[in-house]
Give the backbone structure.
Amino acid sequence: MTAFLFNRRSLLVAGSAVLASGVSGLLLPARAEGLAPTASMPGGANNYRKGAATVERIGKGGFWMSGTVRRAGDGAPLAGQRIQIWAHTVEGQEHEPQSHGATLTDKDGKFRLEMPQIIPIFGQPHGHLAYDSGEFKTVFLRPVMKSARETSLEAHFVLQPA
Amino acid sequence: MRLARRILIWAALAAAIGVPIAAAAMSPQLAWRGPIYIIAGFAGIVALGLVLVQPLLIGGYLPGLQAYRGRRVHHWIGGTLVAAIVIHVAGLWITSPPDMIDALTFTSPTPFSPFGVIAMWAIFAVALLASLRRRLGLRPRTWRIAHTVLAVIIVVGSVAHAVLIEGTMETVTKVALCTLVVVAAAKVLGDLWLWRKRGTLRDSSVARQ
């Protein structure tokens, strides 16, 4: 008779085994299934306005939002992808139209958009970014600045086909 | 001498709450916020100040507000605290509904939100219990234990919530106020326990009331 033991120790062992395999999957993405797609962050879609216009710069600028867009699996850079950006800045609140804008990635899959200085809102200085153009699955990101004094912020997308 | 002591205690309390509020009122962040967001934020700071006053009243540490009078004021401040929290949450909801919904449903990315929401529910629970206590026929012992547990949750939740937030409060005055809140709560819990153990509650109605 073999009783199925499910005590705290077995749970810990099993749990850490699952965790270890999951973490190594994130750390060494290229090994089995390739570069894993980026998941949307909690709260990432808050105050999103669909269809922000592609702009040279949001408002008067002074702050840089940058990042990369790559394809899940092989990690190939994705050119010409539209990334929408918004935040609570010195020129407006998160939900206001003038706080929103979009930019396109260059041939290396990089994007960079100047916008007004981000300031803390709801207790954290953070920005919002969205990929929501249909060709790939929608992703909403919400990166947080290490300090409210920083004048740039990065966010990186790994997209999977829709 | 006694008058000087009274003045000193009240001045210290006024400074403990007034200085952090004044410092927050000078925050450069205010320039980028709308009036409703500003009111919501200050309602939160005032609530933190009231969480400091509550144990001081119950411990009878405030001159002129000891024993029965202290407890009467404690009830009123409790009601004001509920109102301040309602203003805080409602104002933040109006400012950014999705962020407030995330906080209330415990799906917020910000680490301080659950602490604030838990403290909020504990404040509502203790206020509700206090108002229904006679009707429910709660025994003093049951009430005491329930209130103590909820008070600890309120203090820990409020302080963690405030400390983790990057907002209008200035860091040094915020940490000082939070420290005082924890010390005051710990002091009154210790004193009440001691007085009960010695059977020398300053006013026997503390146990009954």
